[in-house]
Design brief:
Length: 220
């Protein structure tokens, strides 16, 4: 039995510890892959959100009969929408927005949560509000204003900044691209329109002429 060598105990201990470490690393990777959202799913949601914004803005610009070009180059920056008759660029990218502003271009930054119809408020020219259906501003009542603020979980004396912050939080939960449903998303958008107008001081006016004097279409 002299030819049989005995493996030292410390070698066995080292092998055992190495095996345990390998199992631990594998477990960490497994749990990480299970708990982290798939990259492909996140990319798909982002792409879906961009597609939705493009469709909404395209629909809005068509409705107000404004000529536009898509994926247009303004200098070294490619923008999703460009209004050639107005020299206005619409972008979804904050970095591109500041680059365009620095070059003297009138740029509009559309955040992820901004509905396409909200673009009219930011255009540097007056627009005529499209006929989407009955104008909710003309039928607005104190009850509807209160319901709008309630939807955003705000008091009716909240200011414009508070309304905007509350809307951004609510729309993250209700947006279809983030697991919400279309009905809730539309409800939050409608509440935001009513609440922001009320906070801006655009209350119900009995005479439509008063409204035309105060704002043409969506306003700026």
């Amino acid at each position: 039995m002299a030819g049989i060598s005995v493996v030292p105990w410390w070698v066995l201990v080292g092998v055992a510890l190495g095996a345990l470490a390998s199992v631990g690393v594998a477990l960490v990777f497994y749990l990480g892959s299970r708990m982290s959202p798939p990259r492909e799913q996140a990319t798909t949601e982002s792409s879906s959100g961009t597609t939705r914004r493009r469709e909404e803005i395209r629909t809005y610009l068509t409705a107000i009969d404004e000529r536009f070009r898509e994926d247009h180059a303004v200098g070294d920056v490619s923008v999703p929408f460009y209004l050639p008759a107005r020299d206005v660029a619409v972008t979804f990218d904050a970095h591109d927005y500041f680059r365009l502003k620095g070059e003297g271009v009138h740029a509009i930054l559309c955040e992820h949560e901004m509905p396409g119809r909200g673009l009219g408020r930011r255009l540097p020219f007056d627009v005529t509000e499209p006929e989407w259906g009955p104008d909710p501003r003309r039928s607005r009542t104190p009850e509807s204003v209160e319901a709008a603020f309630s939807e955003l979980d705000l008091p009716t004396d909240a200011d414009v900044d508070e309304v905007k912050r509350a809307y951004r939080e609510r729309v993250k939960q209700a947006h279809p691209d983030r697991g919400g449903d279309e009905e809730a998303f539309q409800r939050v958008q409608a509440a935001y329109a009513t609440a922001s107008d009320h906070a801006d001081g655009e209350t119900t006016r009995p005479d439509p002429r008063d409204r035309r004097e105060a704002s043409s279409g969506f306003g700026r």
